[in-house]
Design brief:
By secondary structure, the chain is an alpha+beta fold. The protein has one domain: Nuclear Transport Factor 2, Chain: A (Roll), CATH 3.10.450.50. The chain contains three helices and six strands, in the order H-H-E-E-H-E-E-E-E. The protein has a six-stranded mixed beta sheet. Strand 5 and strand 6 form a beta hairpin. The longest helix has 13 residues. The radius of gyration is 15 Å and the shape is globular. The chain starts with 9 loop residues before the first helix and ends in a 15-residue tail after the last strand. This is SgcJ/EcaC family oxidoreductase. It comes from Massilia cellulosiltytica.
């Protein structure tokens, strides 16, 4: 079980679960009733739905992918709630139909603490794109 003791642990905990393609580790990061919006705008609610959304892609197109996450900021909402923003660079491998490539996203996660552990209550993932062309872009300086 992955235990996040601070909201700022979320980017690296999410990265570690993804890079191991460990759906049980991913499960432990979320509250049972959490919501997730993937980078394509698909919305799911509940930990089972979050895992079910990720299982098939980790078995196929993202089976050799990795994430490299970097914390942007933590905004406390109170003693037991925070908003966390972080960059996420997905490096897709040869298993992806488009072949090896990178995608940058910006993740917003709302975390709450229950029984001493922080977990994700809501997460939204947005792909960086050029607003004029719709082309995927990588953030500068990385």
């Amino acid at each position: 079980m992955t235990i996040m003791t601070r909201p700022e642990d979320a980017p690296l905990a999410f990265q570690a679960a993804w890079n191991r393609h460990d759906m049980e580790a991913l499960r432990t990061l979320f509250h049972d009733d959490a919501t997730f919006v993937n980078r394509f705008g698909r919305y799911v609610r509940g930990i089972d739905a979050i895992v079910e959304m990720h299982e098939p892609i980790h078995a196929t197109v993202y089976s050799d992918s990795t994430l490299d996450n970097a914390l942007i900021d933590v905004i406390p909402i109170g003693a037991d709630a925070a908003v966390v923003h972080f960059w996420s660079r997905l490096a897709a491998g040869p298993a992806h139909p488009a072949g090896p490539h990178a995608v940058d996203t910006l993740i917003l996660a709302v975390l709450t603490r229950q029984a001493g552990a922080w977990r994700i209550k809501a997460l939204e993932n947005v792909t960086l794109t050029n607003p004029r062309t719709g082309e995927t872009v990588l953030r500068d300086g990385v």
